[in-house]
Amino acid sequence: MKNLTLFWHRRDLRIHDNAGLFKALKQGKNVQPVFIFDTNILNKLPKNDQRVLFIYQTIKELSASYNKYGSSLWVFHGNPTQLIPELVKRHGVEKVFCNRDYEPAAIQRDKFIHEALQNLNCSFSGSKDQVIFEKDEVVKPDGNPYHVFTPYMRRWKEKLTDFYLKTYPVENYISNLNKGTELSIPDLEAFGFSDIQTQAFPPLRIPKSIIRDYHNTRDIPSLDGTSRLSVHLRFGTISIRELAKTARETNEKYFNELIWRDFYQMILFWYPKSMNHAFKAEYDRIEWEFDEVQFLAWCEGRTGYPLVDAGMRELNETGHMHNRIRMVVASFLCKHLLHDWRLGERYFAEKLLDFDLASNVGGWQWAAGSGVDAAPYFRIFNPTSQQEKFDPEFEYIKKWVPEFGTADYPKPIVEHKWARERVLERYKKALNTNSFGILKK
């Protein structure tokens, strides 16, 4: 089979309103969609990782959708930097299309593939699909990126027109799909992963009432008051353009949360080192503690602070954690236990179904006070007052911590007042010390 055009699915596991697929179909015939289970990513994951199962189930559904159009999805398992050039050579491919990914490792991967395809006289074209505005589309008048969300949001909204929320009419060019031989999709076990589902995957469609009432319900963890669409945004099973259009028409608070996603993606693109280093460099001078027993208690939800414990148990059991609770547990690890935010970020990366590097790093650095538009270092969430405000009847806590209120529930592993004084002193010391370890005058 020769003269194919390839469309490479990555974080865009759908046909409808897919920017890169639209571009591929409009520019060429015999467009062959492919997906690669990337061993560079999979080899680092546990064999029962539920995100892999979610992707696998989605890929099966995507393949069936292509079958309805008389086409097929080719699914491979391996290293994309090898597989994509091999497919280009084997099938005489002149064009490869995809949607852009802004994570540092993805940018390096795509740069390598771009250079390899140049040597094969094949173009490699990316489109904007997972965000409304990318890279330098929303910047200050001097061309520099925003570091504070509110002015970024204002400029974002000023720039927004109906054009940016238009649906790409993929279906108008669907006849340009390749009608070639279908390749069977291997069982997940062939990739070394289990196909046993232990966590419930959020539905793709939600009642519009949830978005409409979002500003009233978003902070109450016992309510079904959030959309739970983050996993679908992460893997592109839903269009950000269509969701943003609905949000703009329905609820500004929810709409603003979608803008936060763009903000964090933009920050990671401009500052890739922030995935491992404090955005505010002076925060890397903080002398963190590490107590294995305390860290394990935090991971397992045995800290003696019921709101923290409920959140961690929800995460461990479901792969989900309510956003308000994410802030509480992150603040607790960084400021009550004085543990490095990177430990928490990596734990969330292992557990969250909706793990997204940009948002995860951004959220953790916000909690630690070290990131863009971060909570000031002296803002320390009190888990008890947070419970009194957002779970006053202990509904959320009792769901996840059934032994709460009995002799089996542990005592607090750290005292709030003492922990608060300790972290304030430690932060002040770091922020008042220069890079040579000398106290500033």
Please tell me about this protein's structure:
With 441 residues, the protein is of the alpha/beta class. The chain has 3 domains: 1-129, HUPs (Rossmann fold), CATH 3.40.50.620; 130-166 and 207-270, Serine Threonine Protein Phosphatase 5, Tetratricopeptide repeat (Alpha Horseshoe), CATH 1.25.40; 281-431, Orthogonal Bundle (DNA Cyclobutane Dipyrimidine Photolyase, subunit A, domain 3). The protein contains 19 helices and 5 strands. The chain has helices spanning 19-27, 39-42, 50-68, 80-91, 104-118, 149-159, 208-212, 214-217, 230-235, 240-250, 252-270, 292-300, 306-318, 323-336, 341-351, 357-368, 383-390, 395-400, 416-431, and strands at residues 5-9, 31-38, 74-78, 95-99, 123-127. The protein has a 5-stranded parallel β-sheet with strand order 3-2-1-4-5, sandwiched between helices. Helix 5 (104-118) links the parallel strand 4 and strand 5. It is globular. 42% of the residues are buried. Belongs to the DNA photolyase family.
Question: Which key features would you list for this structure?
Answer:
441 residues; Serine Threonine Protein Phosphatase 5, Tetratricopeptide repeat; DNA Cyclobutane Dipyrimidine Photolyase, subunit A, domain 3; 3 domains; 5-stranded parallel beta sheet; Crypto/Photolyase_FAD-like_sf; chromophore; FAD binding
